[in-house]
Amino acid sequence: MPPIIGIYKKYKEYIKGQTIIRLHGPDRNGIAKMSGENWNKIYINRDEEIEGIVEMIKDLQNRNVEVYLNINNHYEGCAPLTIEKIKKLLPNA
To answer: Residue 9 phi/psi, 5° resolution?
Structure first.
């Protein structure tokens, strides 16, 4: 799939009411191999992308769009750690 931020910029005016954002990562098998199925740390740092996603979420919230964010371990290696990163960047998380 293409990067979410580009898709958002192209279609954001169509998003109203509520939306779901799913972060799953591009290479499930690769990160599973990297992790050895040990999902307790970050294996791929996506901080720059996460900053853009947080800006996207803030924009959606400013437009009164209810956002549901689903994060898979395959995104960075540990979904709970990725969630903590995002919560630090979102004032109302």
So the answer is: -60, -35
How do residues 31-74 score in pLDDT, each as one tens digit?
A: 888 888 889 999 999 999 999 999 999 999 999 999 999 999 99
Distance CA 92, CA 15 (A): 21
The 3-state DSSP class for residue 11 equals helix
Angle 36-37-42 from CA coordinates, rounded to 5°: 85
pLDDT above 80 (res 1): no
User: Alpha-carbon distance 22 to 79, whole Å?
Assistant: 11
As a whole number of angstroms, the distance between CA 3 and CA 5 comes to: 6
Phi/psi of residue 66, nearest 5 degrees:
-75, 125
What does the mean pLDDT of the chain come to?
A: 92
